Amino acid sequence: xxxxxGVTIVKTGEKGHFGGxxxxxxxxxxxxxxxxxxxxxxxxxxxxxxxxxxVIGYLHTGIEKQMEALRWxxxxxxxxxxxxxxxxxxxxxxxxxxxxxMGVEVPPRADALRVIMSELTRLSSHLVWMGTSGLELxxxxxxxxxxxxxxxxxxxxxxxxxxxMHTSYIRPGGVFADATPRFLEMLDKFIGEMPGHIDExxxxxxxxxxxRARTIGIGRLSPEDAKVLGATGPMLRGSGVAWDLRKTMxxxxxxxxxxxxxxxxxCDCYGRYLVRIREMRExxxxxxxxxxxxxxxxxxxxxxxMLPPPREELETSMEAVIHxxxxxxxxxxxxxxxxxxAVESGRxxxxxxxxxxxxxxxRRVKFRAASFANLQALERMALNHMVADMxxxxxxxxTVLGDVDR
Amino acid sequence: xxxDQLIIDRGVSAGDEWITVPAESVxxxxxxxxxxxxxxxxFLTCVDHLADHSREWPFRFEIVYxxxxxxxxxxxxxxxxxxxxxxxxxxxxxxxxxANWDERETYDLFGVVFNDHPDLSRIxxxxxxxxxxxxxxYPVGGETVEFSEEHERWQTAxxxx
Lengths: 406, 161
What we know:
The structure holds 2 protein chains of 2 kinds. Chain A is 48% helix and 12% strand. By secondary structure, chain A is mainly alpha-helical. By secondary structure, chain B is α/β, with parallel strands linked by helices. The longest helix of chain B is centred in the middle third of the chain and has 12 residues, at 99-110. Chain A binds chain B through residues 1, 56-57, 60, 62, 64-66, 68-69, 100-101, 103, 227-230, 241, 243, 248-249, 336-340, 342, 349, 351, 353, 355, 357-359, 363-364, 366, 368, 372-373, 376, 405-406, and chain B through 13-16, 18, 39-43, 45, 47-49, 52-55, 64, 66, 70, 73, 75, 77, 96-98, 100-101, 109, 122-126, 133-134, 136, 138, 140.
């Protein structure tokens, strides 16, 4: 990567611009502000950052290797766990990829439920981001406010899927189960309350002098740099590029919803914050539309070779018993081929590249992690800033280390 | 413009367009595609086709480049096949900055060596790790379970345990 203009790279032991020597220090991996276990090797000139090298891999769990050893329907459980702040969106990327290979279309109600779960997840992911970033930059109470609403979302996850965090709700062929009436009630109440809560966050942060001083003009990333470096999500939109996969390459019926792509021309940490706030408002808008227009009908494809038959059928049909047995012993096979599907998560482009060799297990599953690409832009953003600003920059890049290391 | 001589094969897989280029001219082909407007490398990875009899493969390792044109929203997958011990291919980090880490990851997990890469070192696995875990001949669960007193029992087949 080329160095930004006006920056001279200096090595350890060389004389810095402030009279002292350049000092190379280790930051992390167990530093609370690194959002996981990120280690940074930083060259410091006084308190100025002159070089930064991220060292990753502390959270590597071999998810891609595990996927190769699991059957297609088992893999969903593993996809939950790489970007652990947005499991349903990870599920969605995987499910869409498997469905594309199999040539399967899910029913409209399943699509709508997928959109609902994706937007709830986007909200909860942005809430965690805002809470923790506020905490790091001195707005302690943000964490309490954000986690209050996040808990409501987790309650809804529990109601619809039985799990609070790793829902495995979206699966190839549809979703785990239909939404319960109680879930729809909770969602309706949540949509009614959420805009007020977002106003509350804005009251606390948008004009907060400390928050503004810590974020405005910090971590600038030009639109051109953001595009070339492969940054996606709020990082790209915070640099003024209106690229959102939900609009530019729609999936799951996002083209039928009326919402706007939030962008900001600030190109700095504050711009990314504004983008996320606006995205939360848009997410509530999408949720309202999805709930009002929720179509009736089945939530799974009617394909006995892919999904197990309903419980009642097992008592009357021998065919159903055979299908049930085959699915839970061997699983289904996916036609040979490869496919890449990308969806927009809270962090950016969350993609899933699958190669099938026609058997009941994938040959290769590659997750294109948004955080992995976004973290590469860190050097470009953090050079010539103070150490304390680096915290703001890592914070607003919103990297999830589980996603980076997979 | 990418010249047709560089394209060995082209096709569509599950709606995704792809082309195959020879491994020795991958840098030239990607440079041409970049000037055609495919400015973003979404990801780069490797697929190990060891003992895959579903289709005919020229070589064991397939390197995949997923490109995107942000203006026209077109996507293109560039595939190339390599072999050897270790398999070698030219780095494209000078064309696409995101390739830097992706190539390190591919080196780490598949043992593919990228010529002219500025810092080809392990990125996800520890620096002293032996082997390349995502190769198909690297067993799942083959490593010892650290800190477990019972790790020998974990490694044994169920009927012996």
